[in-house]
Design goal:
By secondary structure, the protein is an alpha+beta fold. Helices cover about 40% and strands about 20% of the residues.
Length: about 325
């Protein structure tokens, strides 16, 4: 969940709890974003895992320490009750943990007592759709309407935002829960993969049979059902082969070992491959992330095999992608 959306959602919830009391609204909204200040702990995080992003500041203990410190400092800046400052800042921190756990990136709420992480995987960690809504909303509320329109106008805007986010999260939760119960009906799927669109999801599964790995995936669109399933099989041992590549399947097999391209990001995503011949006899295999797709481009690893069978070139980046359902029949 992006920082702006964290702050905006916490602001709306705090407003609903304490009403229009500016000092508490500011404290609650600030607390909704403060756990992400762990990015400033990067030097420590390189040595101590507990200080990495989504580490101790995303735990119950971490947000409580932040809330206590904030409740002690805030009355020195703006008059108010220690207990109320603590309550709204604790609520803001807990909302931050909950919103992050709602996405595809997990959080460890019981650190340092337990490393157990939770993840509902119902939204993207950074969703450009909600980010744009949040940025525009903050500009309207604080830049356009603040002290410029009647209070009724501001309350109307806040009500619209509340309905929007309430509906958005409700759709996400309901669809995620339904797919969790129904996924086995559509194929051998293990994972439910959200996209930025709350009405479009992916199902993904990986199975090993003998010396081959079979990848299965499908697209679910609300009201339109399933596209797929599609299957891709690979032989992980093919990476040791040498010489020119003779077929599309061999190109995919030999590229499989390179799909993570030395990047931890690609170890945490779900991939499918396309192989295309390149003149005069080489092959280009692109492993696309099925979930990190924005504006028609996907996070990808591209493996280029030269015609003479030499060592491949491996590149990472965002590339335009044609999803397999656009030009291939479903796998049987």
């Amino acid at each position: 969940m992006d920082l702006i959306t964290h702050v905006l959602v916490t602001y709306l919830v705090t407003l609903g709890v304490v009403g229009f009391q500016p000092q508490y609204l500011a404290a609650g909204a600030l607390a909704g974003g403060l756990p992400d200040a762990d990015a400033l702990l990067y030097p420590l995080g390189r040595r101590f895992e507990i200080f990495q992003h989504r580490g101790i500041t995303h735990s119950f203990l971490g947000v409580t320490i932040i809330a206590i410190a904030g409740a002690l400092i805030a009355p020195l800046l703006l008059p108010g009750s220690f207990l109320l400052y603590f309550a709204v800042m604790e609520m803001g921190g807990l909302l931050h943990i909950g919103l992050d756990a709602f996405t595809n990136f997990s959080v460890p709420p019981l650190l340092p007592f337990s490393r157990q992480r939770i993840c509902y995987d119902a939204d993207r960690a950074v969703n450009f759709f909600t980010l744009v809504v949040s940025v525009v909303s903050m500009y309207v509320l604080l830049g356009v309407e603040r002290n410029q329109v009647a209070i009724q106008g501001e309350w109307a805007s806040i009500a619209v935002l509340g309905v929007f986010f309430g509906a958005y999260f409700a759709i996400r939760v309901a669809t995620r829960a339904w797919l969790g119960r129904a996924k086995s009906r559509f194929g051998p799927f293990d994972h439910i993969v959200p996209t930025e669109n709350p009405f479009t999801w992916f199902l993904y599964g990986e199975r090993r049979a003998g010396d081959r790995v079979s990848l299965h995936f499908a697209r679910y669109r609300t009201g339109r059902g399933i596209s797929g399933p599609y299957a891709l099989t690979v032989d992980p041992a093919a990476a040791t082969r040498a010489g020119p590549i003779a077929s599309e399947q061999e190109a995919i097999d030999r590229s499989y070992a390179h799909r993570h391209a030395r990047g931890r990001f690609f170890e945490d995503t779900y991939l499918f491959a396309r192989a295309e011949p390149t003149p005069p006899g080489g092959w280009q295999i692109t492993w696309y992330s099925i979930e990190f797709v924005n504006f028609g481009r996907s996070a990808s690893v591209q493996v280029l095999f030269p015609p003479d069978g030499g060592a491949p070139e491996v590149h990472r980046g965002f590339r335009r992608v044609r999803m397999p359902w656009a030009d291939r029949p479903p796998a049987t």
